[in-house]
């Protein structure tokens, strides 16, 4: 990955080493907080340091550093998914947003298990085995953050998480077969057993960002619903159902005020992006991802069309 996603991954790996008590011994670690842009070599250097310190079985454990990132918007955006299918869809969207050359492909998803594959978009350049195992561990941590229990993973037929067979994983890596995964989990019996996931799903954005607009209450209701999940906004049918209306009735009521749902979504995304830019120091690309834009170019184009300024210039001009 690149940009903010790569920086976030390095931060997770660094935190994972700290949780395992390996953050201070051995070779110096790359600086995980160096900025939004982290070179591929930096990430690979950290993976290599982890491999040298703890062997192949350590790599899937690095994802546990994710549990210390609750404050991060990216963490919130991923674990606000209502189920495993939505979580994997969000992960896929993140990979596409940052134009990652490596992708996690979903092969099969059942009630308590999933089969996935870590692949490269470039022929003849597969992901490094060590990187694949780190990503596998991160997905395990994400499943745990959803409140799922007894999360387990295998790479090929080799146990990788929560306890990995180091020698078998090494042999698997040498055979170039570390990118085929099987994950399984158990759904808790009650919400009380779900752990910290519920707190992480609380919306980060204020839900009244459009309150100053002269919109009728019907449109304001839709705006608040849209703000709850801009990466996967509710459909017209879902918005209408929440108002006890048919989709056609909702569209007709909005049209009476010269509005459409697509307009509401565009305005909500714009105001949410402005909030992230002005109220936080998170990278520009991350703000666009959290607001549901397809990629950074799409974010830049839409934001500039509506404000006359690129996101970076907007932040520089108005950051208080």
From TrEMBL:
Gene3D superfamilies membership: Homeodomain-like (1.10.10.60)
GO cellular component: cytosol
Name of the protein this chain belongs to: AraC-like DNA-binding protein
InterPro entries, sorted: Homeodomain-like_sf, HTH_AraC, HTH_AraC-typ_CS
Residue ranges constituting the HTH araC/xylS-type domain according to the UniProt record: 220-317
Pfam families (alphabetical): HTH_18
The keyword Transferase is annotated on this UniProt entry: no
SUPFAM superfamilies, per the entry: Homeodomain-like
UniProt keyword annotations, A-Z: DNA-binding, Transcription, Transcription regulation
Molecular function in Gene Ontology: DNA-binding transcription factor activity; transcription cis-regulatory region binding
Keyword Amino-acid biosynthesis: no
Coiled coil: none
Originating species: Roseateles toxinivorans
Top-rank taxon: Bacteria
PANTHER family assigned: HTH-TYPE TRANSCRIPTIONAL REGULATOR GADX (PTHR47894:SF4)
């Amino acid at each position: 990955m690149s940009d903010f996603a790569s920086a976030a991954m390095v931060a997770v790996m660094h935190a994972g080493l700290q949780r395992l008590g390996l953050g201070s011994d051995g070779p110096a670690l790359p600086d995980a907080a160096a900025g939004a842009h982290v070179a591929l070599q930096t990430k690979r250097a950290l993976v290599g340091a982890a491999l040298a310190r703890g062997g192949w079985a350590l790599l899937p454990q690095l994802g546990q550093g994710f549990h210390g990132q609750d404050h991060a918007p990216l963490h919130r955006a991923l674990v606000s998914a209502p189920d495993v299918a939505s979580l994997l869809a969000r992960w896929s969207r993140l990979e596409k947003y940052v134009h990652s050359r490596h992708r996690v492909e979903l092969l099969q998803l059942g009630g308590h298990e999933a089969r996935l594959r870590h692949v490269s978009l470039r022929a003849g350049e597969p992901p490094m085995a060590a990187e694949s195992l780190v990503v596998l561990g991160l997905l395990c941590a994400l499943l745990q953050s959803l409140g799922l229990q007894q999360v387990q993973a295998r790479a090929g037929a080799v146990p990788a998480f929560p306890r990995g067979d180091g020698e078998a994983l090494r042999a698997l890596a040498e055979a170039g077969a570390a990118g085929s995964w099987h994950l399984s989990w158990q759904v808790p019996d009650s919400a009380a057993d779900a752990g910290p996931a519920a707190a992480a799903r609380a919306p980060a954005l204020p839900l009244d960002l459009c309150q100053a607009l002269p919109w009728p209450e019907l449109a304001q209701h839709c705006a608040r619903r849209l703000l709850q999940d801009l990466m996967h906004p509710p459909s017209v049918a879902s918005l209408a159902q929440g108002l006890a209306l048919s989709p056609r009735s909702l569209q007709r009521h909005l049209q009476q005020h010269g509005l459409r749902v697509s307009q509401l979504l565009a305005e909500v995304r714009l105001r949410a992006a402005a909030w992230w830019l002005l109220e936080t120091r998170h990278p520009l690309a991350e703000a666009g991802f959290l607001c549901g834009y397809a990629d950074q170019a799409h974010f830049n184009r839409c934001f500039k069309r509506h404000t006359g300024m690129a996101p970076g210039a907007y932040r520089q001009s108005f950051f208080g």
